[in-house]
Amino acid sequence: MRPVTMSATMGCSYPPVFVMDAGGRQYLQPVSRADPALVPCWNFPPARSHSRRGSCGGLNAAVASVLVMVLLLVFAALGFGAYQIFQLQNEVLQLKQYVCVFELILIWCLFSQQENAQNKSPEKLIDLRRPDAERAQRGQVAAHLIGGRGKSGDSLVWGPRVGRAFTSGVVYRNNGLLVNETGLYFVYSRVEFLDNHCSPRDHLVHSVHMRRTDGHPLTLMEDHREGFCVVGKEQVWTSGSGLGSVQKLQKHDFVYVSVSDPAKLSHNFQSNYFGLYKID
């Protein structure tokens, strides 16, 4: 028969074990204390360890979710910024195209206006508006001065750069023209006198002079105006004087104009002029 055993918790002595044989006799069976102790069922450390591992895993999942959301937001912001940059680039390209088209239209308009002005202007035919250096390169020697002013007995002061006035191949200096080349020149001058007071003895003199390097002045042309005054009438009177002739001038000759009464000169610049041009 099998023995019946009883056990207790660790730390307590085992109770005696009685064995009964086939004859009904009982005797004490010694209990071996080498049997291993049983593990109680209320041992909690493994359960606690499992609980801690579960909580750490939940925390890691939450952090990972937050990081994923942050990365998604960053990528979304980068994508939106790239889209905005792309839109700005397209707008800049369109603006450049508009600017190029506007520049082409403006250049075409300016070119058309310049071409029309050149075709319609008579200055293109007589070549009066070209720069002095270009005229000198082409061999044109000429000058035209307007608006004479001055004192009695002195040379008139002219405007070499007023209105249509110009100089080419000659130099305007000391109220006259200095010739740089020897040759035949057509010299001309016109003045207009205007006043509202006069006497029968009044006369006006208009002269063109030339002075050479030796310092002696020569009169090239001269005009006397008389009989322009009407006695007894208080009204404005005018009288014009024009001179022109071909003169042989030498290099460094100085040509100038004088009048007897500069105070009576008209204030109309186009009525008072002086010039020359080389014909040979």
Features:
Jelly Rolls, alpha+beta, six-stranded antiparallel β-sheet, 2 domains
Describe the structure.
With 280 residues, this protein is of the alpha+beta class. It folds into two domains: 47-104; 132-278, Jelly Rolls (Sandwich), CATH 2.60.120. It has three helices and 13 strands. It has helices spanning 45-120, 123-126, 132-137; strands at residues 17-20, 26-29, 142-149, 157-159, 166-168, 170-173, 176-179, 183-195, 204-211, 217-225, 237-249, 254-259, 273-278. It is rod-shaped and about 195 Å long. The model is unreliable at 4-10 and 121-132 (pLDDT under 50).
Q: On the 0-100 scale, what is the average pLDDT?
A: 75
For the secondary structure, the number of strands is: 13
Helix/strand/pairing category = alpha+beta
Unreliable stretches: 4-10, 121-132
Shape label: rod-shaped
Number of helices: 3
The CATH topology of the largest domain turns out to be: Jelly Rolls
Indicate the CATH class of the largest domain.
Answer: Mainly Beta
Family: Belongs to the tumor necrosis factor family.
GO molecular function, one term: cytokine activity
Main location: membrane
Organism: Chanos chanos (Milkfish)
